[in-house]
C-alpha cells in the first residue's frame, strides 16, 4: 500500500514539474515573439544606398543632352565622406558628399576642376541633402532654393544598360522642372531623369569598373642650357583613390622629359605641400634640396623656376604661383622673394617636344 502511495506521489510531482517548465517556456517564447519587429523601411540605412568605395569607376549613358553621359571617379575618401570626380568630356565637376547621421549630403561642389586636390574638409553655403532617413515613402525635405524633395517609392523597378534594379526613388519638384533619382542598394545612384518644359534628359548606369584609375595629361616643363629655351611635354598621369597628388606629380617630374634638359625636381627634392587658395594662387612648398642641389647661375636658375611655375600653374589653370622652401619664402644667392610674393606663368618661349 505504501509503495502505491509513493508511486502516485512521484507521478503527480513529475507532472507538476513538467507542466511548470512548459508554462515557463511558453512565457519566454511569448516574450520573444512579442518584441516589436522592424519593418524593411526601418531597417534600411542611407549608407546601404550610397556606399563609399575606392578605386571604382561608374560609367553613365546619357540621353537628351551631349553632357548627360559621364564617367564618375573616386578621388578621395574618409570614414564618412567621398570626393567624386564627374567627367562629361566637356567639363569636370567635383562633389564632396557626406554620409552621416541618416543623411547623404553634398557638402561642397566645384566646376572646371581639372586639377586634383583633397577637398574633403571644404564646406560651401549651398549644402544639399540628396537622401535621408527614414527611407520610406513620403519622407520629404525642402532644399535651400525652395525645391521639394521626396522619397516617392522604396521598391521602384529600374532598368539601365547595366542591369535591372530595385531602387529607392527620390523626386525633386521645382517650379519649372522635375528630377527623379534612383538609388540601388550596394551600388548607389543608378539613374537620373530630368524633365523641363517637355524635354527629358537622362543618365543611366551602364558599367561599374573595379581597380580603376583616373588619368589626366600633365605638361612638364624643363629648361635647356644649350639654347636657353624651356621645353615641355605632356605625360599621362594616373591616380588611384587617396593617392597624394603632390607625391605622384613629384615622382613624375623626376623622370626627365628629355635627358639633355636640366632637372627641375632633383632626386632628393620633396614637394612638402601643394595647394591652391581661394584667390586661385597656387602654393608649392619644396624641401631644402631644391635650392641646395640647384647649382645654377642666375639665368638658368630663373629658367628652372619658370619651368616649375609653368608646370604647376598650368596644372591648376592659374597664373600665380608662390614658391617656398621648408615654409620660408624662396631665397638664393641671386634671388629673394618676400612673404606672399608670387611668380607668374609665362609660356611665350615654351617649345613642345612632340612624339
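Q: What amino acid sequence fits the structure above?
A:
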Amino acid at each position: 500500500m505504501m509503495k502505491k502511495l509513493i508511486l502516485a506521489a512521484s507521478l503527480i510531482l513529475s507532472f507538476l514539474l513538467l507542466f511548470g517548465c512548459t508554462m515557463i517556456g511558453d512565457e519566454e517564447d511569448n516574450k520573444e515573439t512579442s518584441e516589436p519587429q522592424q519593418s524593411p523601411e526601418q531597417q534600411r540605412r542611407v549608407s546601404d544606398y550610397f556606399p563609399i568605395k575606392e578605386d571604382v569607376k561608374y560609367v553613365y549613358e546619357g540621353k537628351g543632352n551631349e553632357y548627360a553621359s559621364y564617367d564618375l571617379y573616386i578621388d578621395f575618401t574618409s570614414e564618412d565622406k567621398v570626393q567624386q570626380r564627374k567627367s562629361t568630356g566637356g567639363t569636370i565637376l567635383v562633389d564632396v558628399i557626406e554620409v552621416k547621421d541618416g543623411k547623404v549630403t553634398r557638402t561642397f561642389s566645384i566646376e572646371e576642376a581639372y586639377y586634383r586636390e583633397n577637398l574633403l574638409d571644404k564646406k560651401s553655403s549651398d549644402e544639399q541633402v540628396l537622401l535621408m532617413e527614414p527611407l520610406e515613402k513620403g519622407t520629404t525635405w525642402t532644399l535651400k532654393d525652395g525645391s521639394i524633395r521626396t522619397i516617392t517609392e522604396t521598391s521602384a523597378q529600374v532598368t539601365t544598360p547595366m542591369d535591372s534594379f530595385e531602387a529607392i526613388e527620390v523626386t525633386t519638384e521645382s517650379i519649372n522642372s522635375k528630377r527623379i533619382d534612383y538609388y540601388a542598394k550596394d551600388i548607389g545612384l543608378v539613374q537620373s531623369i530630368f524633365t523641363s518644359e517637355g524635354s527629358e534628359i537622362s543618365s543611366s548606369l551602364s558599367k561599374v569598373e573595379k581597380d580603376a584609375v583616373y588619368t589626366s595629361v600633365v605638361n612638364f616643363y624643363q629648361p635647356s642650357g644649350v639654347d636657353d629655351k624651356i621645353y615641355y611635354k605632356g605625360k599621362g598621369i594616373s591616380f588611384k583613390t587617396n593617392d597624394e597628388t603632390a607625391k605622384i606629380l613629384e615622382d613624375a617630374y623626376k623622370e626627365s622629359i628629355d635627358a639633355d634638359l636640366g632637372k627641375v625636381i632633383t632626386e632628393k627634392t620633396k614637394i612638402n605641400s601643394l595647394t591652391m587658395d581661394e584667390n586661385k594662387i597656387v602654393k608649392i612648398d619644396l624641401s631644402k634640396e631644391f635650392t641646395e642641389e640647384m647649382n645654377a647661375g642666375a639665368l638658368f636658375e630663373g629658367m628652372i623656376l619658370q619651368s616649375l611655375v609653368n608646370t604647376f600653374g598650368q596644372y591648376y589653370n592659374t597664373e600665380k604661383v608662390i614658391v617656398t622652401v621648408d615654409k620660408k619664402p624662396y631665397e638664393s644667392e641671386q634671388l629673394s622673394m618676400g612673404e606672399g610674393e608670387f611668380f607668374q606663368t609665362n609660356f611665350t618661349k615654351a617649345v613642345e617636344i612632340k612624339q
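Q: And what stands out in the fold?
A: The chain has two domains: 46-210, 214-352.
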